[in-house]
Structure formats: structure tokens, C-alpha cells
Amino acid sequence: MDSRQRQYLDAMGIQRWQWRGDPDERSAESNQGVDVSSPGAVDGLDWDELATAVAACRRCELCESRTQTVFGVGNQSADCMIIGEAPGAEEDRQGEPFVGRAGQLLDAMLQAVRLDRRTVYIANILKCRPPNNRDPAPEEAVACRDYLQRQISLVQPRVILAVGRIAAQNLLQSNQPIGRLRGQEHTFGEDRIPVIVTYHPAYLLRSPLEKRKTWTDLLRVRQRLEERA
């Protein structure tokens, strides 16, 4: 219902219908036939449709424990896309990836190479928080995979920064440890988007001596952006 229709109803004293059911059910209803229950159903969706599909998603059991889904944030036409693991407790509350102490460190890392949340796009492998911040289960990552792939297709970044072991392994379909994935040349998808792997800010908070290696990774991101400008 648009604003003009609402004005007409108000002027005639007719009470507007309001949804009083379950919020997830309302989201599913607003999807207008988009089958969000099966992977592959989101191909061709635009940003608004994709966000609606994610908000209504019930593909795995994480939908039962989440406060809300965490879709993504930033420039939807960014040259650099940052992909993390999964929402934590604070992300689950705020609905935004990488907030809290780890998010503050990520912001500082980006600023060091002349980037920030307004110029990059940030998303996660999972759109819902795993209980107790455990690692994502393989079936959960699979259930969310095409959401992330569609986001990548919409952004069309020049370079992807995979943050942390879980993000790197899922994005690259690898079981190698992050120490081996770092410093290598990786690509994603048919467009062969360069992928650079680095440590997660939460890990760097516990192991600050590893920040030197992350600085090297960030310089590679900056170099890639300048090469492909």
C-alpha cells in the first residue's frame, strides 16, 4: 500500500489492515513467492529482494536462536569486499557485522590502507549467529552459501579480503590452515576475483604480535586495488 492509498483510507475513516502474526511469517509473506528454503533460489534477486530472503530464511536451525539476521553493510558497489565468519553476540543484537572490539580493530586496519566501512562492503559466511559463538557447522555454511555468492555478484568487487580461517576455508573450499592460505594467490568464481587471506581481528586481539603479518596482507589489498583501478 502506497502513501496515497493510506491517505485515502484515513480520509474516509477506514481502519488500515495491520499484520499481527509472527515477524518471520510476515517476512516470508512479503517475499511474494521467492522460495528461500532451498539454496539456489536467490539467483537474480536484487539487493532488497535478497535482504528480504535472508530475513525470512529458515534453512537451518540457527533461525530458532537468532535475534535477527546480519545481512551486510557498506558500499554495495565497493572495489573491496570483506568476508568474515559469522555474527557474534553484539552483531546479533545490532544486526551489523564486525562491531565491538573486533570491529573497532577492523576499522583501524582499514583506515591504515585508506579504506573504511563506507568504501568497502562487509558480509559474513553465515547470516545468523551460532550459539555460544561456536564455529559454523558445514551444513550451515552450505545453507548460507548462495546468499553470499549473490552478494558478491551484486557488489562485483575488485578484490576480496577473507578474514579468519573459517571465512577463508569456506570461501576457497579448502581445509588448509590459515597460515598456509595467507600469502598465496587465490581467486573466487568465474570472474577470478583476487582473494587475500588474513587473520581475524578477534585473533589479533589475543595475539597482537601477528599484526605485522596482517599489515602485509592489507598492503597487498591496497596494491591490488591500485593495480586494477
Describe this protein's structure.
The N terminus is likely disordered. The chain starts with a helix and ends with a helix. It has 229 residues and is an alpha/beta fold. 41% of the residues are buried. The chain contains 10 helices and 6 strands, in the order H-H-H-E-E-H-H-E-H-E-H-H-E-E-H-H. The chain has one domain: Uracil-DNA glycosylase-like domain (Uracil-DNA Glycosylase, subunit E, 3-Layer(aba) Sandwich). Strand 5 and strand 6 form a beta hairpin. Strands 1-3-2-4-6-5 form a 6-stranded mixed beta sheet, with helices on both faces. The protein is globular.
Please describe the structure with a list of short key phrases separated by commas or semicolons.
alpha/beta; Uracil-DNA Glycosylase, subunit E; six-stranded mixed β-sheet; 10 helices; disordered N terminus
